[in-house]
């Protein structure tokens, strides 16, 4: 086996030497032919070789361009898929929001319907004058002072509560109940909507019919009239108190300003005595901006 391996390796080396000799011979012949060729042929071969190189380069560049184009296309398709996925998620989110809003609207509608039914039941229990919303007008919390006489009469006669015994918070809560009864027209008597109009209408009826009321009725009416006048006086008294409070506030502010001016004058004189005329002039400017500097 070893002898056969050595013989085969020797034959291979001999073959290689023969091929190298043949290759050297071919190169020598080519060099000789190239030297014998004319300059035009050499230039033509150079141009052909350069053309072949440029062709190879152009083909290589073309391959690179095509590869880059494929990459761009892949990136573009990937971005389109991502954008499509974002749009799908956004639509899904909007659809869920719409469903939630519809459910919320339906829930509120049912609650409102249920609340209206309960209000109608309550109105039937109270024996209201009417169940029409806003029949006698709509009042709000800002109308607390303008509706003071009616509110006071309602507290005293319906709720059996003295207004003067209520705290500010309790008074606001009671007025909310008064406001609700007014707006839903559920007062037990029409006089609580407008006390002046109620008394005026009662007097007109009495004058028109020419009937004399009994002593009891006159006493009741006189009591209501007296209460109405007391409420009007109370309203005027409150207004006067507010004006006086405003005056006191203004007077307190004026007194404070006068004290501040006196302090500044003392400071100005002190600065003059020290010879600090610039600081004294600044204080004088604060006291009287239009006065000439001393």
Your description of this structure?
With 294 residues, the chain is mostly helical. Among the domains are: 91-126; 141-259, no CATH class. The chain has seven helices and no strands. The longest helix is centred in the N-terminal third of the chain and has 88 residues, at 39-126. The chain is elongated.
What distinguishing features does this structure have?
294 residues; mainly alpha; 7 helices; 80% helix; 0% strand; disordered N terminus; coiled coil
Structural shape: elongated
Roughly how many Å apart are the termini? 134 Å
Which stretches are low in confidence, meaning pLDDT under 50 for 5 or more residues running?
A: 1-5, 125-130
The strand count comes to: 0
| Main pleated-sheet profile | none
Strand content: under 5%
What's the gyration radius in Å?
55 Å
Helical amount among residues, as a percent range? over 70%
Mean pLDDT reading: 77
Structural class of the helix and strand makeup?
mainly alpha
How many DSSP helices? 7
Order of helices and strands: HHHHHHH
Q: Which SSEs are present, and which pair or pack?
A:
Blueprint: H1 2-36, H2 39-126, H3 148-157, H4 168-183, H5 195-209, H6 215-274, H7 277-287
Helix pairs in contact: 3-6, 6-7
């Amino acid at each position: 086996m070893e002898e056969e391996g050595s013989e085969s390796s020797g034959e291979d080396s001999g073959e290689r030497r023969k091929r190298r000799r043949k290759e050297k011979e071919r190169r020598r012949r080519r060099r000789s032919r190239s030297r014998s060729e004319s300059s035009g042929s050499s230039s033509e071969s150079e141009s052909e070789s350069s053309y072949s190189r440029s062709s190879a380069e152009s083909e290589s560049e073309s391959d690179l361009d095509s590869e880059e184009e494929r990459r761009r296309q892949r990136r573009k398709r990937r971005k389109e898929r991502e954008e499509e996925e974002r749009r799908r998620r956004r639509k899904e989110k909007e659809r869920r929001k719409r469903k939630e809003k519809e459910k919320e609207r339906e829930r509120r509608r049912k609650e409102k319907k249920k609340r209206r039914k309960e209000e109608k039941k309550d109105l039937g229990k109270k024996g209201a004058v009417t169940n029409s919303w806003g029949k006698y007008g709509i009042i709000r919390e800002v109308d607390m002072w303008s509706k003071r006489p009616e509110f006071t009469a309602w507290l005293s006669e319906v709720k059996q509560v003295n207004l003067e015994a209520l705290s500010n918070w309790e008074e606001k809560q009671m007025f909310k109940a008064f406001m609700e009864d007014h707006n839903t027209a559920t007062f037990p008597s029409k006089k609580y909507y407008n006390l002046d109009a109620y008394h005026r209408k009662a007097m007109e009826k009495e004058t028109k019919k020419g009937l004399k009321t009994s002593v009891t009725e006159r006493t009741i009416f006189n009591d209501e009239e007296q209460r109405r006048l007391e409420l009007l006086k109370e309203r005027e008294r409150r207004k006067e108190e507010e004006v006086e409070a405003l005056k006191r506030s203004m007077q307190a502010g004026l007194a404070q300003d006068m004290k501040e001016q006196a302090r500044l004058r003392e400071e100005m004189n002190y600065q003059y005595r020290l010879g600090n005329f610039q600081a004294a002039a600044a204080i004088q400017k604060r006291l009287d901006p239009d006065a000439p500097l001393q």
